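Quick one from the shared queue. A colleague (R.T.) flagged Protein arginine methyltransferase NDUFAF7 protein as missing a structural entry in our internal table.

Convert sequence to structure tokens.
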Amino acid sequence: MLRSSLSSCLRRSVIPILFATSVRSQNFCSSSSQTQIPPPPPPREGAEENHYDSRPTASISIDRSGLYNHPEHSHEPSSDSELVKHLKSIIKFRGGPITVAEYMEEVLTNPTSGFYMNRDVFGAGGDFITSPEVSQMFGEMIGVWTMCLWEQMGQPERVNLIELGPGRGTLMVDLLRGASKFVDFTKSLHIHMVECSPTLRKVQYDNLKCTDEAVNEEDHTKRTISMLSGAPISWHSTLEEVPSGSPTIIIAHEFYDALPVHQFQKAPRGWCEKMVDVEENSSRFRFVLSPQPTPATLLYLMKRCKWAGAQEIAKVEHIEVCPQAMDLTHQIAKRVSSDGGGALIIDYGENRIISDSLQAIRKHKFVHILDDPGTADLSAYVDFASVRHSAEEASEDISVYGPMTQSQFLGSLGINFRVEALLQNCTEEQAESLRTGYWRLVGDGEAPFWEGPDEQTPIGMGSRYLAMAIVNKKQGAPIPFQ
Ligand code: SAH
């Protein structure tokens, strides 16, 4: 696709919407007078113009932002799984408790029995729901953001598009389908998935319609191609493993919240660290407080507190700190600064110190954090202020934008036009699913249009989820953060 196509898409759909952010409509069930519909992102080849898929209605599924966090504090003892035995043996051989961060890391990503490692945890049949699984419009809008940044980068011929923690690969599928008519853009893409779970890698491979092709018959080297766009695609365990040297766009959706947090608590003897121990009599896990400051208190808590005002710290009794988020942000900023491009981080969280947000979700219900580890997701609010400070500390060549709410972000990118375009050509059932999905993505609180059972009322993620961008200064401000 020629440059003019992308520019005209921007002119007709994105730029007018940027000017109209203040009149963005939350409730799109509107009269036909509100149908100034610019062309939507293009559909998958061979699909109908306003292609949509039939994702399960999301209202039955819980997201991870903790709106309904009622953890039951009495957890049933369960027989020791491999992971439980492993955790207990670490505590035993260490001769004392482990940090909450160590516990969280083992529970989520232990190579043999971590929560993510050998199952598909998403959607109605899984444990929780994420925005790409709620609606195709989410990945499409991220695609619009990515194309606009690529344009601001001067339409480089080769771009490393890196997704951190791609889940089922749904966001990337929707991004590629949405962008499929913009051939210069899709041709430039070298996709890199940073994923620790072998099971989810396989799901991503299948969903992205991947195939392996020979590069060199003699030495049998192969590369993997996504048949959705023809882009080469590869998998890595960490961002560090992704080759640098090409302009880069990084997407991290609900990745930061899975990174392990340390928890600190104010005690009469000063700030102490919350730790996980085993009860002597029952051999159950329990929380204990460190008798004195731990190495993490001195290293990470002090670092985080330097970025906060005395008043902010005085107000809280608990503080969560995520050193891996600081380190990852540092790497992202360094890479964006040396290679050019930018990163988009979307997650639930707040733009200040996080107090006590760690939660566990199993089968769409909140459970106790220590209950049957490895069978429930653990996640924590993202401290966006700390992300900003980490990025700014890492490089002077980058600028940080946001956070802004997901509702502002998607609204400014034109999601209301996209949903209206899709609604032009769908059945009643599909319209209801689109409406529900739209509300889940940009709404705030309970959907006012809902006529179904109360317990299934869609709850908006629009203000609980935040978007932040870290961009090389050369590019200027990315949409819609101008
Ligand atoms: N972005 C997806 C999935 C979010 S869940 C979505 O929005 O649907 C978190 C994802 O990050 C999963 O794919 C999980 O396997 C992966 N993940 C979690 N911790 C990781 C780590 N330390 N390294 C690499 N991948 C990780």
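The longest strand covers residues 341-350.
The chain has 15 helices and 20 strands.
Added to the table.
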